[in-house]
Amino acid sequence: MTKELETVDPQERFLEFFKKEKYRQRIAQMAITGRESITIDFEELFGFDQRLSEILLDKPDDYLQHASNAAYGQLGIEDSEYAQKMEKIAVRVVQLLGKEQLRKLGSKQMGKLVMIEGIVVRATPVRPMVMIASFKCKRCGTISKIEQTGQFMKAPTVCTSPDCGQNGPFEFIQEESTFIDSQDLRLQEKPEDLPPGQLPRTLSVKLVGGEIVDLARPGDHVSIVGIVRAFAPSRPGIGKLRTFILQLDANSLEVLGKEPETSPPTIEEEEKMLELSKDPWVHRKIMSSIAPSIYGYEHIKEAIMYLLFGGVSKTLPDITVRGEMNALLIGDPGTAKSQLLQYVARIAPRGLYTSGRGTTAAGLTAAVIREKGGSMSLEAGALVLADKGIACIDEMDKMRPEDRVAIHEAMEQHTVSVAKGGIVATLNARTAILAAANPSLGRYEPHRTVAENISLAVMLLSRFDLIFVLRDVPDKEADGRMTEHILEIHRRGSSPVEVQVDIELMRKYVSYAKGIKPVLGTEALKRLSDFYLAMRGASETEGSPVAITARQLESLVRIAEAIARVALRKEVTAEDAEAAIAIMKRSLGEVGIDVSSYKMDIDLIMTGKPKSVRDRLHIVLSMLVEMEKETSIVEKTKLMNELELKHKIPRSDTERMLGQLLREGTIYEPKEGFLKKT
Ligand SMILES: Nc1ncnc2c1ncn2[C@@H]1O[C@H](COP(=O)(O)OP(=O)(O)O)[C@@H](O)[C@H]1O
Ligand SMILES: [Mg+2]
Ligand SMILES: [Zn+2]
Q: Rounded to two decimals, what is the model's pTM?
């Protein structure tokens, strides 16, 4: 096949291709936008000359060169002035007919042009790379220009001046060398492509050229067309290894749509979905199909259902309000928290399961890491990778200290900002979060507050729309039923509960529902505002603690919208609002708020501190800050003396309050006996 074609000049064929009206126009307009490359749709080339397109895939180095020469020739015809300025133009190919799986890449694809989709997990800043290096001979001053390929910079072996011809020494002259922008990415398999139970693989990608660098940020889903290269890593003093490492030299890069990809439903599927949505029991049916093998926990499954569907994000000119929901499960060990989370990660579009520590250096948010060669790169953490999906974070209480700082922004603003090591970036993290945490004391102690039970900052707790407590209390009757359920699973090897909506349909249904943006009906609006105002009003009297905050009101709206979405309704009804209020009450009740008596103090629940205590804590903190101004870190005994002297707070009380502030992370102990505010 190859032989036959070589009788035709490939460059001529490409030139003919570029004479098509569409490409002539693209080439003619290059000067206007200052472009340095021309993009070819592979399918068109395939339609134009199938063999040419096939050989392009097989011998991309030669054939991209032919294409580039041809494009340059055509540029000379269309716009000779710009052609003279450009010296050469690059040809970029997009949308190959088939994509290659990242994990299937091997020796067979070496040197070939392939298309690979994945998530960018890591990116270096844009860095100049030398293309033509100028070297000055120190003996005669002649400049030799050396075209650069490969990883390392090549110096001339002998001086190019015929009068000199000696082997240097040479000095690199930066001002006379040509550079091009380059960037290194690390591409990871998309969760959709991951075989069950496998860890995702990654591939390093080299981007060269101002038009493809800096297009993608960590967390972006991209499609890259490039040539598969392999190079042997070298061990200093020993030589090169026999086993090569694969790398992709990118030819083109496209950032893919932000929505998780699911194939559009067929007509039958759509009918099935619409039928399900009209079922008066649709909520119950979907709920009972979530983690059917896990016994009980109806209210938690209900919350998970709302989390899957989500509320509607609102983007106003000045602010954006997230639509994604966050839920937290706090519970005793062995209460199926991990199982629930893993299940959700499996069924949710773009679901991701991770532990609080995260599985990579980037943890939950993002990190700037130093790579082997000493260069810095930005790596996306779990919340960025789960952008537009659901992040299931197990053992969240064990997250890294860096994440504790960054996660507030991630949960409320849905972005992760990094400014470190010369990298300044903001990444998207528009993800719903289902988190689990173990009680810090081993078991959940109901007479203590939520904040006392887990080691998570109070501010963080308030970012969860719903919080539930899973307690493992011996209960004869319930235990009996649960034992039966679990043993039945083990006996049959399948769930004893019949699923009404299978995973496949559920996933499609969720994607479909997300296209609907329900709005609050007047009646729904009234119910929500009545409930909210009643609770606020209960705490209006002078000096009483602050009750529910605007955060809870927004949560209620999100939940109500999700409820409408489950039934594919465009309007949130009064019933939806009531159901949202009901689950919110349940959640508040679980964290210790008595909703019926309207005696609520979110501060008390979350922080475990009624207002009077808060006032005293405030005094302690202000004093600490005051003293910090002088000594930067404060000696504990001195602080206690001051408080006793000026505010008559007994030392034992101060001691206790400091313990509490330490535990919740408001202050810390940089060294034994010294304190500092976080
Ligand atoms: N309600 C339940 N229904 C079914 N299995 C359960 C239930 N509660 C606990 N289990 C089982 O107990 C085991 C421990 O669950 P796990 O998810 O690891 O707990 P946790 O993460 O809360 O410590 C799992 O095998 C789980 O299937
Ligand atoms: Mg667990
Ligand atoms: Zn010389």
A: 0.74
